[in-house]
Structures are given as C-alpha cells and as structure tokens.
Amino acid sequence: MGAAEPDLYRDTWVRYLGYANEVGESFRPLVPVPVVWASYGVATAYVTADAIDKGRRAATVSSLASVAIPGFTINRLCAASLALLGALTRWPLPLRRWTTTALGLAAIPLIITPIDRTVDFLMDSSLRKLYGPPGEPPAPH
C-alpha cells in the first residue's frame, strides 16, 4: 500500500462500522436484543476485515479497542443513565429510553480516542514487547 493511499479501514467512513455495536448498545432500551447482537456482528465483521487487510500487522493488534471495551463502556453508560433517569426524574419510560439512547450515541465520539490510546498503551506495554511493532519481525525470545 502506497504512502498516499488511505487505509480503507482507518481513514474512511468504513472505520465507523467498527463502532456499530456502540450504536446498538445505545439503542438497547428501544430495540429488541437481537438487533443489539446484530450490531456486534457488524462491528466484528469490520474487525475481521481489517485484520485480514493488515495480515501479520493485525495479529498484534487487539480487537479490544474496536469491539469489547467500547461496547462494554456504552452498555454500562446506558444502563447507568437509564437507572439514574428512573430514580431522579418522573419522565415517562419512552422519554427515559430515548434520552438514554441519545446519551449513548453522543458518547461514542468521546470514547474513541481515550480507549484507542489506552489499548495502544496496554499493547505496547505487553504483547508488542513480545511480538514487536506491526511490520517488524518478532523480538527474539
């Protein structure tokens, strides 16, 4: 891949498919659970396609930053929001659910960079020490 060529999975709108599960988690109060699980399927397909595209370099990159941690973060944020709105307001349930969904969706752009940086730090501090940076041969054991 040339230096001027954008990375389809990182530099284009396709990157947002990796956050489909956060959208699903945001809508959890409003949609059936199978819809939420389908959003995890979309995010997992993105991660898989990106990993295939990157080959060996992707072998050292954890899908934690793309699926598990963001999905869990939005899930807990939405669960806490729904519970707090129920305890602190007298809003009808549909309004609380829509508010929770809006909060979850609004949080997605805010969590991307901190989670990516944290996972990169964790990977740099652990697995990448063993396997080396992407594109370089593994470190001798």
Automatic annotation (TrEMBL):
<protein>
    <recommendedName>
        <fullName>Mitochondrial fission process protein 1</fullName>
    </recommendedName>
</protein>
<dbReference type="GO" id="GO:0000266">
    <property type="term" value="P:mitochondrial fission"/>
</dbReference>
<dbReference type="Pfam" id="PF10558">
    <property type="entry name" value="MTP18"/>
</dbReference>
<dbReference type="InterPro" id="IPR019560">
    <property type="entry name" value="Mitochondrial_18_kDa_protein"/>
</dbReference>
<dbReference type="GO" id="GO:0005739">
    <property type="term" value="C:mitochondrion"/>
</dbReference>
<comment type="similarity">
    <text>Belongs to the MTFP1 family.</text>
</comment>
